[in-house]
Design a protein that fits this description.
This protein is an alpha/beta fold and 362 residues long. The chain is 35% helix and 22% strand.
Length: 362
């Protein structure tokens, strides 16, 4: 499953290239609690087809009802929320707010006190959308700037992701290429993790030189390669939107791949294994590959968050949760780290008085 923004843009471009009327809605401001963050996008076609999301569903339903009626009737009206007339939506972008009053918040399913504002762009140019999609597919980070007076769009490469900016003249939103995941090993755990990653918008590549594992691989949407893992890491060129996860338990395959990944900008680098196995991995890297504790500081292991997982699907949930937390800049409590949680449980089992309310006693 591809990145949601790319999916929305690609679908919108297809509608417009076929000559169909459509609009692009972008969440530009929120107050209080809101179902979707600033920068979220949704596309709506004249026949009521919709892709993407700007809320939990109620606002989408209102936009669909309002604009499909307008497209069907073609009668003159304005675009403001609450206006009972209809017209074919066109012209420069317009702003609409939902949840300004308590009644509206309840009607549209917004949390108490929640308000959001959307920018609606009518009939975006298909050529500009195609150019943006091509750049994203090529792995480039792009800024899309919309001039509010007439809807004219400017596309420029971006050096780093930035927050959406809107002022009196224009809206500027950053679109990035897909997040990517490289898995070392094509075993059962990798299949579950790849499936979860695909549903979270990651493009997944799986590397395993062992034919017996590749032959039973059953996740068609993932790319499978057979070269040696360290060579694959070099060819993969991990960047800030990439993660590398070693899952084979075989040092000949995992170690060199992880070392190569640590030399990249990958936001997450980790290897499966018990606490003892991960300690042994670090010792090998220090002894045989001139690594130090400092150079291995980014290496994660045991990977995942502690949820008591035992089976491959449960372990995959644990690992995917940690990857998403790191991706989203969330610092997890230490007692959710696998090693820390298991150490604490063992300490509590051996000496019940050693832990008080989850904290080590002095």
């Amino acid at each position: 499953m591809e990145n949601l923004d790319v999916m929305v843009l690609r679908t919108l471009q297809g509608w417009r290239a076929a000559g169909r009327r459509a609009l692009l809605a972008t969440v530009v401001r929120t107050w209080g609690s809101s179902p979707r963050p600033v920068g979220s996008i949704m596309a709506l076609c004249e026949d009521g087809s919709v892709v993407g999301s700007v809320s939990g569903g109620c606002i989408e339903d209102d936009l669909i009802d309002r604009h499909t009626q307008a497209y069907a009737q073609g009668a003159p009206t304005a675009n403001a929320v609450g206006d009972k007339d209809h017209r074919i939506p066109s012209g420069p972008p317009t702003f609409v707010k939902y949840g300004v009053t308590a009644d509206e918040a309840h009607r549209f399913g917004l949390p108490c006190g929640g308000t959001l504002e959307l920018l609606l762009e009518y009939d975006p140019a298909p050529d500009s959308l195609a150019t943006l999609i091509t750049a994203l597919e090529a792995g480039r980070l792009m800024q899309r700037s919309v001039r509010l007076v007439d809807g004219a769009v400017t596309l420029t490469p971006a050096a780093a992701p930035t927050e959406l900016v809107v002022d009196a003249e224009r809206l500027t939103n950053t679109f990035g290429p897909e997040y990517r995941m490289l898995l070392i090993g094509a075993g059962q755990l990798a299949e579950y993790l790849a499936t979860m990653a695909l549903f979270n918008g990651f493009a997944v590549t799986v590397c395993d030189p062992r034919e017996e594992y590749r032959g039973s691989w059953n996740v068609p949407a993932a790319t499978v390669v057979s070269d040696m893992p360290d060579d694959v890491v070099l060819a993969f060129k991990p960047d800030r939107r990439s993660c590398v996860v070693a899952l084979t338990h075989d040092p000949k395959l995992d170690d060199l791949a992880l070392l190569e990944a640590l030399n990249t900008d990958a936001f997450y680098v980790g290897g499966i294994g018990s606490r003892r196995n991960n300690e042994a991995r670090r010792a090998r890297m220090i002894e045989h590959f001139d690594q130090t504790e400092e150079s291995l500081a980014r290496l994660r292991g045991p990977i995942g968050i502690y949820i008591g997982s035992k089976t491959p699907p449960e372990i995959a949930v644990s690992v995917m949760a940690e990857i998403l937390a790191v991706k989203n800049g969330v610092t997890l409590p230490r007692d959710m780290e696998v090693a820390q949680a298991k150490n604490d449980r063992e300490l509590a089992h051996n000496d019940p008085g050693a832990l008080v309310c989850g904290v080590r006693a002095a």
